[in-house]
Amino acid sequence: MTMPSPRASVxxxxxxxxxxxxxxxxxxxxxxxxxxVVKLWSDAWAEMVPFLSLDVEIRKVICSTNAIESVxxxxxxxxxxRGHFPSENAALKCIYMALMSLDPTGKGRRRWTMRxxxxxxxxxxxxxxxxxxxxx
Length: 136
Description:
Elements: H1 6-12, H2 16-30, H3 35-43, H4 45-48, H5 56-63, H6 66-82, H7 88-100, H8 108-126
GO biological process, one term: DNA transposition
Family: Belongs to the transposase mutator family.
Keywords: DNA recombination, DNA-binding, Transposable element, Transposition
């Protein structure tokens, strides 16, 4: 089992004090090689601290953009293959078809639901009432 990098340890730290400790370890190890990165983090520390008050599951979602990047790549590929669209509706249909091709059988929804269950629960607790639609 490999130890997580000090950088990753900062984002996954359970508290601000622990994150500060991990950052100091990171700075000590990499500061001479990458002083600009250490300065960037130091300068932005006040903006990063509120992030640590979020649930760990929420932090994982915020830090990972792989799923979003994958969807965007599929949409770009579909749009580029088409070239141009006679109307906005045609463009929307192209994007819709690209999104539906990500999971043509619908079996991926179960995996998606299980993977997102913990983060969605954390979002529901942290942002109570904001995730459920309101009826007027």
